[in-house]
Amino acid sequence: MDEYRELISVLPLDTVEYAFAYGSGAIQQKDENKAEKMVDFVVVTKDAQEFHKANIAKNPQHYSLLRLLGPKMLEKIQCNFAARVYYNTHVNVGKRKIKYGIISYENVKQDLLDWRWIYISGRLHKPVLDVIKPKDDMCDLVTENRRSALHSALLLLPESFTLKQLFHQIVGLSYTGDSRMIVGEDKNKIMKIVEGNYEELMRVYEPLMNDDARLSVMSPAKVIQDGSTTAIYHRLNLLPSEVLNQIQKNMNKAQKRQRDAEEVIFSLAHRHDVAATVETAIGGIIRPISFSQTAKNAFSAGMTRSVIYSLAKMSKFLKSK
């Protein structure tokens, strides 16, 4: 952990509420060497403009030529487009390379509670390293986000399954509809995360499973959930608001009717295509955001860094095929 704190200590941290490291450079994945990887960070700031102002003064080399637009314009680029994250990538700190995304507290709150973009929330479905510890309110948001991930994953699973199958669904949620999983990402990524982090996933999700009266963990090889219409209706109602909005929109469009969310959810709970409907809704949120945030990342990184990053991703993708 000290190594990761040292890596992020090059940033101005006065406005930072929470910072975590994620990805294969920070979290162990099966058959991967962390020491060889670029380390990915997310920094949550209470004042994005002030963060960029201080960071440009301290680390101008972290930015592309966009820094010339000034901190006010960088805040607008960060907070008004795609998943509301601004990334600086391929930054050299000592012997390691880091990539860090900056997001405002209000935007991260929206994503964790409502799954507005399923971007930072998706990263926090999985184990991360808390480099700057979250305060109580942020802890509550992270826990609520993971509870939503558990409900979503359970709606995608049958009445009986294994813990590994559950974790595979949870980890895979944020890749649903992500264009990078078609070209650009390691095809075995979800499996590698689950295999490399099984104990940590247990630590994170066991308390949430224990709190769920409709779920029984008999053994790692046998988990049983209540598959009744009442239980499904209950879980559907606990999904984040953006997922429910997407379900309502999709079902009304398919059936050429205008019904309110409560009527749509009640109707869905009685159908046999709940899993497909929920998965389609989640993918419908992630798909356009993955395109727009990838374009935004290339824009903020600059041409040279974008090419280097894309080539590295493509190399990983080809090795996994």
From TrEMBL:
One GO CC term on file: mitochondrial inner membrane
Cofactor needs: Mg(2+)
Pathway entry: Phospholipid metabolism; CDP-diacylglycerol biosynthesis; CDP-diacylglycerol from sn-glycerol 3-phosphate: step 3/3; Lipid metabolism
Family annotation (InterPro entries): Tam41
Cell location: Mitochondrion inner membrane
Reactions catalysed according to its record: a 1,2-diacyl-sn-glycero-3-phosphate + CTP + H(+) = a CDP-1,2-diacyl-sn-glycerol + diphosphate
Pfam families: Tam41_Mmp37 (PF09139)
Top-rank taxon, per record: Eukaryota
An individual GO BP term: cardiolipin biosynthetic process
Keywords linked to the UniProt accession: Lipid biosynthesis, Lipid metabolism, Magnesium, Membrane, Mitochondrion, Mitochondrion inner membrane, Nucleotidyltransferase, Phospholipid biosynthesis, Phospholipid metabolism, Transferase
Membrane-topology descriptor: Peripheral membrane protein
Broadest EC class assigned to this enzyme: transferase
Alphabetized GO MF terms: phosphatidate cytidylyltransferase activity
E.C. numbers: 2.7.7.41
Function: Catalyzes the conversion of phosphatidic acid (PA) to CDP-diacylglycerol (CDP-DAG), an essential intermediate in the synthesis of phosphatidylglycerol, cardiolipin and phosphatidylinositol.
Family: Belongs to the TAM41 family.
The protein's name: Phosphatidate cytidylyltransferase, mitochondrial
Classification of source organism: Eukaryota, Metazoa, Ecdysozoa, Nematoda, Chromadorea
